[in-house]
Amino acid sequence: MIELFEDPRLDKPSNEPAPATLVKFRQISQDAQKGAGEERVKAQHDKGKMTARERISYLLDKDSFIELKSLMESSCSDFGIKDKHIKGDGVITGFGRINGREVALYAQDFTQLGGSLGLAHAQKIAALMDRALDAKIPVIGLLDSGGARIQEGVDSLNGFGEIFYRNVKASGVIPQISIILGPCAGGAAYSPALTDFIFMVEGISHMFITGPGAVKAATGEEVDFDTLGGSHPHSEKSGVCQFVAKSEQDCFRQVRELLSFLPQNCEENPPLQTTSDLVSREVPVLERVCEMDPKKAFRVHHVIWRLADDFGFFEIHQNFAKNVVTGFIRLGGQVVGVVANNPAVMGGALDCDASDKAARFIRFLNAFNIPLLTLVDTGGYLPGVAQEHGGIIRHGAKLLYAYSEASIPKVTLVLRKAYGGAYIAMGSKYLRGDFNFAFPSAEIAVMGPRGAVEILYSRDLKKETDEAKKEELKQKMTKEYSDKFASPYQAATNGSIDEVIEPAQARSKIIRAFEVLKKKRDPRKNPRKGNIPL
């Protein structure tokens, strides 16, 4: 019998040749790491794109990646696929760390069969997602693929089905992030659409169900890849993607920052972060809000920045439905999601897209135990034939549903105006806001005071023929109506508002409210709620 470990010198490097089995293993591993060879790697670089392995190296913490199923191959016997012995089958899967926290990651390799999805390719992704669900860690997909592998027929479509099913099972349980780094066509586009956040890079990212050629054949329309499914149409018009980056490196930086706000799963709270920004810091500049005409436009970002720790705001969906602003801040070190009307765009009115945008973000916050701050400055739902025919009733109802369903801590602050149904929809007391505050400048009413006066006192106004006197009368009536029916003190009298607060003390009041609500909900007892695309 040979005692392998008797001599401690065997622990030291040996000059003897490696056993044949190790030599063979190392050669196979090296071949798998090389991908499709230098020529195709160069073609990828010539397009201004990184390779799959370069992307993984850039995104993850150094030396943290553990690859799995690197030697898996396609079993397809048609069109010579099996004979090519493509190790990994066009996708790299494994686990790594970002900012020291575990993530599951897959990266499609466009240099191998165009990153197309075959059955083995899909099985690798599905197995990774299963392990991520077991481990309760986020899943990140780096997508760069020609879509379904037509050589494998229906098997490739079945593979998509396996992934879609897991996207839905993981929804609201673990964060799912999709990074589009090339084409993402046909059925492949639906997996990202089922995830929580989509990132795209200008010039290299394209998503569409049918490409330019198919569009022309079907409708006669001529369109290029960027116009049809590039980062700008999907971030500004369709709302499909939440983030746009100038480069892959910028994209990966944004992904790392996003993850710093998120818990690992639905059973945890988001990570706390120490800050030197005092909870008691006053914000006297917010007193200017009280001086402003309610009809005057301003960017709500200025309020958000001044409330947040260290003036930091990580905005989400910033190019889509700009009349509502969503994103993450920290207050006293605690992560908080923000939904705010933006008077700089359409006066902060709610429309179909803004309702969808806010509702899905609120449902994400609710799934992952992130408190919600709502900043209200809206004249109501946007009127018009286009909105009514576009389904503003249906889309607006999603926002009502999201606020009512959310059991996370909810704090609402009315800055200036809160009229009509939009007042109710934006985190009002009657949708179970926990703390509802208002600035002294707040106007809370069925509609704007001037409009209300023109309806209520139309006969009296018609009697006055002198235009100057009519305007003077209208202003007097408007002030009387505002003082009686649109005042924050009236709302506070009937309990619609918990407290009218000093603008300078808004930061400390809001942080204190969230401290009180810290144990409102135990994440471990939170019933699972998926984050369905809206």
Architecture blueprint of SSEs:
Layout: H1 20-34, H2 38-46, H3 52-59, E1 66-68, E2 91-98, E3 101-108, H4 119-135, E4 139-145, H5 154-170, E5 176-185, H6 190-194, E6 197-201, E7 206-208, H7 212-219, H8 225-229, H9 231-236, E8 243-245, H10 248-259, H11 287-291, H12 301-307, E9 314-316, E10 324-331, E11 334-341, H13 352-367, E12 372-378, H14 385-389, H15 392-405, E13 410-419, H16 420-425, E14 435-438, E15 443-445, H17 449-456, H18 458-463, H19 467-485, H20 488-493, E16 499-500, H21 506-516
Parallel strand pairs: 3-4, 4-5, 5-6, 5-7, 6-8, 11-12, 12-13, 13-14, 13-15, 14-16
Antiparallel strand pairs: 1-2, 2-3, 9-10, 10-11
Helix pairs in contact: 4-5, 13-15, 17-19
